[in-house]
Amino acid sequence: MTKIILITSISDLNQIPTNILKSNETKIFSFNLDVHLELNNQKIEHTMADNLLNTHERLKIFDKMTEFRSWYSKIPSSDFELEGVNLLKIFDRNEFHTYLLPILINLVIIKEIVSKEKPTKIIATDQISKIIQSIIKNDNIETEFFKNEHNTNLLWDNITAKYNVGGIPLTFTLSRKKYLKIKNTFENLSGLLNNFWFKFDQSKNKSIVFLEFNPQLFSKLFEEMTNYDGDVVLINHRRSAIWNKKSINVIKKSKCKILNLETVLNKHEQAQIPELLDNYSQKIDNLWRNSKILNEVFHIYGYEFLDSIKDTMMKLYSERLFSYISLILSLKKIINQLNIKCIVSLNESGETEKTMLEVNKKKFPTILLEHGFIERNSKTKIYDILSEHVSFNDKIVVWGEPKKKWLINEYNINPERILVIGSPRHDNYFSSRLQHKHNREKTILLAPNPINEINGQSTTNLKLQFNETIKNIVEIIKKFDNVKIIVKLHPIQLEHNDEIKSFIKNLDSSIPIYLWTPVIETINNVDAVLVLTPEIHATPTMLLESMILEKPTMNIYFDKIIPEYTHVKNNAVFTVTNNDNLENNLKKFLFDENFQKTLQKNADNFLNHFLINHGTASEKFASILKSY
Predict the structure, then answer these.
(1) Dihedral sign of CA atoms 47, 48, 50, 51 in order
(2) Residue 206: beta bridge partners?
(3) Would the pLDDT of 201 be above 80?
(4) pLDDT tens string 514-545
(5) Closest CA to 607 of 401, 469, 333, 388
(6) Are 228 and 222 within 8 A, CB to CB?
(7) Contact present, 419 and 397 (Cβ < 8 Å)
(8) Residue 62, number of CB atoms within 10 A of its CB
(9) 613 Rama class: left (phi>0) / alpha (psi -120 to 50) / beta
(10) pTM
């Protein structure tokens, strides 16, 4: 008789009785790092379940996941359309991807476990009971599910605000609803005091509209738009455009205006929303409860998984539908009433961006602006689906000729749609370069790139290797005279970021950890930058920014083979793997001045090839926008 226990979260351990966990008659499978560490701590023998899938198998699941990103297009009905926009489509595409991909991976892992172990009984909590039942529904396998009331939130159900006070990182988390309420209150007060508001009903000027831009990151671009003979309008439904003092100063200096979506609809238009909400809520609820179509949509390798996501998706639409309806009606009114010359966005997957593009229906020109460092090869091309350039159907602004050639050669995109401008976001970097000083004490910046669930590569082993490498780096740096280490975390809201912060604090609480300190300021205050890249496809933007600021840059990959990206082949970054001799490599990187000079020379050559209009991209892009 073979009994297996499947533990997918640390909260499961509090629900499954200890006598069952420690029984000699059961085989335990852990599904993440926290569970593995706690079982080790309790000296309970177990197997790491995610070892059952290799990278190739995970890539196959990722590829299958791309089919589900547009699941709503397979629903043959106009019942869910409002003003010609499918309400089902508004849900952030990447948020859905981040939610669903781990479920698919767990489903395939459990399938493999059942096939290999041939259990007579499966013990777990109700967190994964529906996945298990979909796999064994035709098998005679006994199950025992313990109740686990821990809620699994979607990526943007909660918003984490992050600040630094000195070297001390402070964070607080709010529900999406509470965050938006506080955001609106703060913006109303700040906008009133500083005259930031765009007067929607009074404007007769032409307008350029920017969607969900952080003014602080694009300060030079907005400065270049100051003499525009129309209105420069920011629509920030998700994150405030005036979230700190620096962003407020950018808005003041550039004379941009913020369009508050809460003020677009009049009282009569707002009064229609409750009826629309009742109507569409019932339709969407019926779709998830009764649809045979969805069973045909949500299946993988012959297994249906609708029941595993149905409750979460119903809850999502129930909680966000009011916002979606308001968003569609507000943006539709903006499209109909404003004299918009161009709409600029950084992506087309977010709820604001997606809705605006849908209601626009190609009425006004749109531009997608490249804003992150991405290099690709044949092995990592599959991840282009996340960058969105391949699906955007209007003008695309890219940083240099290499990206333009890639889009033309790999995706047959019309060259006339691709504008090679450079990076407006990084103009301030080129003007912020500091002369190198020979300080008695060297400071190295450790920039650990977090593992993102959206890529399907997160495993217990990878996180263990990641932590071990951080530990080794800290121990080695302590051996060196007059070298100190600081840490800059990626600002993205991810669980692994919190895990990294906790691990480093437990390792050495004296190490400063910075969250939202400006990257320019952080890099300029150090002598060298060390990036950790755990994912096979990733090229962290920190690499490019360190090169621009003329800092020697080292990158550690967690794969046996280093990807042959151009910056690697050009030796613009000192690129090694986590299995190489770390101490020798760090000595060479930190203390060999000739090697550092070679790195910097190679970096300059790479930048000249990869990125055009150094320091003047904002001026070039602004001139294009003004021509509309």
Answers:
(1) negative
(2) 339
(3) no
(4) 987 889 999 999 999 999 999 988 999 999 99
(5) 401
(6) no
(7) yes
(8) 22
(9) left
(10) 0.92
